[in-house]
């Protein structure tokens, strides 16, 4: 038996941990491009803000898009509810609420993550400290996830935690692609140009998949094969296919455990079918942008239905 | 002044003999280092308390001192007997005061003390708590002034806190100094959460629809100063930690909202004050309680621990009558001493108190946490004058006691051991079947030299408390 509030707390705790990690990944990709591609980087920072859904909030605060401002806004601005510091603080507050459901390892991992990041991000981030900070974020959030996998029972607590992670993750991956969908279109005029390669690289880096992609595909890069990899390859842990498959699994576990089938179960199955055993050509036929927009909105609806079906709120 | 460790310099008293031996061979610098480690350990675990009125980020640690407070087996046996007697008397008193009020009829306590008292809840008159227990959890505050002199300072019959420190302090000491526990026969305290769960479950209503009693801990939420303790106890007991928003009343039962629907609760260990328990009956503004829970309670369908209205038993205006109360209900003389108390509501007493303010401790009748009290010997003339004004304005709001020469136990300072004043809060569990007293408790210590105020909100710290086995 589990309180609805607890299920919600677990779900959001792990969504926010995943969010912090994704923001760090995005910044890392942006940072890498800025370093290697010289001065044409400001557009890239803008698109990174868009991907993170922070464009509007950023523009309210700053007139100009500069690397320094974007980095600090995304990493440590407390007024930005999705900054890494805000996300980790929210995750830790949720963890305090659901502490009785967590193993002491998981609690200590998230508490230490918060204590360390609070300390690190107390001062403005400089270019020199950037690399270490991003590494630290990835390391600390990985410890939380590792503690979950290594020490928690595989029951409803685990299912709600993982659902939060996976919903956040597929949403993030879909957003990254949607901001850059135009460079993945086979019809794009500048296929093969150097701009294009940069954009592809950024996509792969933001999902930490540049190495795994080249393991699988060698030097043979094409828009279709990258789109296929990030959308439909179920071996890739940040792909839509991987994430939706897991969402389906955890919801089925809950169905079995509780002996009740809810509306969210059918919705998750529909979402799975959108990316399961599907060819990238048929996605292009549907229209990549249309496909991604409807995937993002379906994921949000699914998350809302899960909240409702399992009584997260009164 | 009585120091519990040392009879004279380098001459430890018997319970401390082995510890003192060990300590003399330790390197002071290393011990100081260990002491710093203990602090980072507490922070990582998150044993912090929030200070009211401070930003969310300010989670404070209660300072922990690594020198244990040690109590001999025979000393403890006597305390145990005295505490059990007192707690049984308090439960008998509460039942009586909310039913026939024999003690008033017998003229042993004045009627006015109940009639005009905010801690007395008219809503509890005639109510029978399931199992007949009023105070499931008690934290009796004791102070010591000599080898055989223990006094009860307060009975804490509402919602005593601090038990998580007792448990975590021990856990920390076990990790830091495992060798000491093989040397000394220290009685364990770790069974407390299990015993708490048993005491609560044994007090559950008999007519529950659940196969096993469902116990939940009600917390005001993560911003409450004792939130850590609430979640800690729920976790250790395997009980749900609930907030107002999780609860409602359905079909005459208090239920909690779960991922699979609504589950009835049998026992609610509430860490919320009476006034906030039920907005329909008490404070209508309360967002911390459950609307309708008092109806469920009166119908006998839920156990509330502690029962509403137990505050009348630890009211300071009543404190001076405790020896009579113990005798009235148990037929025995009180084993534990009461501190002599002047009731400022009585003209003669008030006169005496006003004449002797610089020597006395004056407390608010309804106060707690060390707020709003005057410690005469430590106060300036100005402070005393200001207090006198308040006292004259509303004498019935105050009681006065002699300034006790509290015992000291050394703490570890840069210069080595240094004596500091301490008190002791053992934790008592009551069910219809038994009274359990955990051997140990929370020792609070005034870290400032010479200070008598041990409250954590006023700069106090804690120590692990060792009761030795035979």
TrEMBL record, chain A:
Pfam families: Alpha-E
Highest taxon in the source lineage: Bacteria
InterPro entries: ATP-dep_Glu-Cys_Ligase-2 (IPR051680), DUF403 (IPR007296)
Domain DUF403: 2-310
PANTHER family assigned to the protein according to its UniProt record, in alphabetical order: BLR5612 PROTEIN, SLL1039 PROTEIN
Protein name as annotated: Uncharacterized conserved protein, Alpha-E superfamily
Organism: Cognatishimia maritima
TrEMBL record, chain B:
Domain of life: Bacteria
InterPro entries: ATP-dep_Glu-Cys_Ligase-2, CP_ATPgrasp_2, UCP005522
Ranges where the Circularly permuted ATP-grasp type domain occurs: 68-446
Entry protein name: Uncharacterized conserved protein, circularly permuted ATPgrasp superfamily
